[in-house]
Amino acid sequence: MEDLLEMLHNAVELGKVDRKSPYPPQLRDHDGAYEITAMALDAGLGPQQILEEALIPAMAKVGKKFSDRQIFVPQMLLSAKAMGASMVLLKPFFASGALRSNGTFIIGTVRGDLHDIGKNLVSMMVEGGGWQVVDLGVDAGSDRFIETLENHPGAVIGLSALLTTTMENMKQTVEDIRAVSPSTRILIGGAPVTQDFCDRIGADFYSPNGQEAVNYLKTLAGN
Ligand code: B12
């Protein structure tokens, strides 16, 4: 079991998407993140364990290697693709609450930011928590959040930012939403985001992961 988690960690860290992907050359004809995830699920490992013990630590390692200049953007992108391949198989487990609707959750990565893995994960979990999710994708400006909110009155908003530079755009987005709809609940997250930052920009809730966001949303839905 541990071997499968370790193999998956390696596949994501090295950017081995699936068996047929040619990169990295030393893993040619080896299983990739997709196949290993399927084996892990078949072996009875839970999606949360796969996420917490293989995928998320692998991406943290990738970030560290990037900071240390051991790898560059193309390798980081392949790791992201490998994690995405694994998430395709995990999604049905997280999204199984889609038929109930506690309300609408509008989520997006803020303007100037193209990181979407964490946002997609939160989106899956919130959907699994029984909310209808409207996903605005990446590089979403305040105008898109406000327009979508007009079409879904009472919706809760989730903002993601992974860059210190785009945290400024997160602050601006919160201000812009507050200006038109002061009572709208706004959740924020992303690797550089903190509780202190949340307090400073006047967002309602900060969470370092999707699960705590789901728990907070439950309190809003009254269950
Ligand atoms: C993969 C990756 C990329 C991929 C993204 C692909 C994709 N489709 O997302 C690519 C290659 C495109 C990329 C590009 C860049 N990246 Co990059 N990237 C990463 C990396 C390695 C992993 C991010 C990730 O997916 N983590 C896994 C997910 C699951 O974690 P997460 O996003 O943090 O999400 C969790 C929580 O934060 C939270 N959460 C997230 N969002 C939300 C929202 C809400 C509402 C809530 C409640 C919670 C929540 O829940 C999630 C689940 O637990 C990070 C390293 C790191 N440690 O974060 C660097 C990192 C973020 N990147 C970095 C940089 C510098 C860049 C580039 C500027 C590089 C360049 N020179 O071009 C560009 C910027 C592009 C842009 N404009 O956005 C830096 C940022 C440094 C900084 N302080 O700003 C990092 C930290 C790497 C590093 N150590 O230097 N990157």
What do these coordinates show?
- Strands 2-1-3-4-5 form a five-stranded parallel sheet, with helices on both faces.
- The protein folds into two domains: 2-95, Methionine synthase domain (Methyltransferase, Methionine Synthase (B12-binding Domains), Chain A, domain 1); 98-221, Cobalamin-binding domain (Rossmann fold), CATH 3.40.50.280.
- Helix 1 runs antiparallel to helix 2 and helix 1 runs parallel beside helix 3 (47-67).
- The mean pLDDT is 94.
- It is of the alpha/beta class.
- The protein has helices spanning 2-14, 33-42, 47-67, 73-94, 117-128, 142-151, 164-180, 195-201, 210-221, and strands at 104-109, 132-135, 156-160, 186-189, 205-206.
- The longest helix has 22 residues, at 73-94.
- Residues 56, 59-60, 62-63, 66-67, 73, 76-77, 80, 112-119, 121-122, 158-160, 162-164, 187-192, 207-210, 213 line the site of cobalamin.
Integer count of domains: 2
Q: What is the percentage of strand-forming residues?
A: 5-15%
> What overall form do the CA principal axes indicate?
globular
Uncertain stretches of 5 or more adjacent residues: none
Distinct small molecules bound, one entry per kind:
cobalamin
Q: How many alpha or pi helices?
A: 9
Secondary-structure class: alpha/beta
Question: What is the string of helix and strand elements?
Answer: HHHHEHEHEHEHEH
Helix content: 55-70%
CATH class value of the largest domain = Alpha Beta
Question: For the report, how would you describe the main beta sheet?
Answer: 5 strands, parallel
Q: Give the spatial strand order of the biggest sheet.
A: 2-1-3-4-5
Strand count: 5
